[in-house]
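for the writeup, i need someone to sanity check this before i put it in the appendix. the sequnce is what the collaborator sent (i think, or maybe the updated version? ugh). structure was predicted straight from it, no edits. if anything looks off just tell me and ill rerun, i have time this weekend
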Amino acid sequence: MLRSEQIPSRKNKKLIRYSEIFVDNIKDIVRRVIGEMAEQKVDISHKLQECWPKMLESAEAAHAQVAGYREGIVYVHVDSPAWLYQLNTKKKKILQKLKLVSSEIKDVRFKLGEQG
């Protein structure tokens, strides 16, 4: 007769504890959640790359490029201090448009950087 905290294993007919099954289930859940989060990040980054030029005037888009996305923040590289100032004056409007791409976007940050 089996004790209440043990059940037979399907693989090798040994007794295993419920806690081992619980840990295996948690591992599977964590892997799945991390995978979904990674897919979602890639999806948001891809959408940003597609939509960015359409959100700005053509002159602005030529001088600013999405550099990345992390934890709700969109990072944008701008090629000159003048364009950095210009985009910062429009930050609220740009952020409103970005939030239409994903509700997870909380901020946009502009900095001088290389266009790639």
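The two ends are 68 Å apart (CA to CA). The chain has four helices and five strands.
thx in advance!!
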